[in-house]
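[INFO] parsing input record for 5'-nucleotidase
[DEBUG] input buffer:
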Amino acid sequence: KNPEGVDRAGGAEEYFWNAQSDMPEMDYFGESTRGDLVPSVIPDSSDGMLSPEEVTSYGEELGLDRWGTPTTWGLPAEPQRAVFCSRTLNLRSISCVGYDMDYTLIHYKVVAWEGRAYHYAKKNLKRVGFPVDKLEFNPELVCRGTIIDKKLGNLIKVDRFGYVKRAMHGTR
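[DEBUG] output buffer:
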């Protein structure tokens, strides 16, 4: 059970919320969820910071409780453990995201992380008609610098400078 008392033992799918059906117009930071970079609707406070009450209020308005987002993590706020971000970035219009998994900030459970990404890709491919039922995740095949071109169906392996080292269309 999670802190709210909801049973999570039923399967991994219960951890994820489908935002397609009733996605709020603005996200947690008041940015547009439509990908059109509409300016924030959260009013600026005099010192540029929102109070905890204001953050909680906006979170409730935006429906974060549906995602199981806690209002507090139950940990003391220690500045030396904070992660710095110079500004918010609306990712709604971003079509490709890479993860810097070099273990400099946090330790990842790579097999679980990549396995979940594989599960979602397989699920989406099945939904559009690809025969993926017999496919199994193989953590040995996970490789750094792979880009999936969803529009054309290409897999592209690039080096650290962005030069294409290998490209595949499907399994060719």
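[INFO] The beta strands are 146-149, 154-158, 164-169.
[INFO] shutting down worker
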